[in-house]
Amino acid sequence: MVSAEEGRSWHFRCCWNSKPKRLYLGTYPETSLKEAHTRRDEARELVARGIDPRKHRNQERRQPRQSVLPWLPMTGSGR
Fold this sequence. Notes:
The chain is an alpha+beta fold. The chain is built from 2 helices and 3 strands. Strand 2 (7-16) and strand 3 (19-27) form a beta hairpin. The mean pLDDT is 76.
């Protein structure tokens, strides 16, 4: 997809609940074609298993990250 504001970006189009949906995969050239294909394939697999790829991505982003330093626990605020 090409737009004046964003430039070029990769999207995955699918139908969810009989409605067309679009999942953002990344911006070109930061996201390569190979990486966009990998992300597309992962989203396609989720749709095939009956999982909404947009909700799945949002849930993954909300999960707490592991601390980089094992002896330093992460707080809920991300500081």
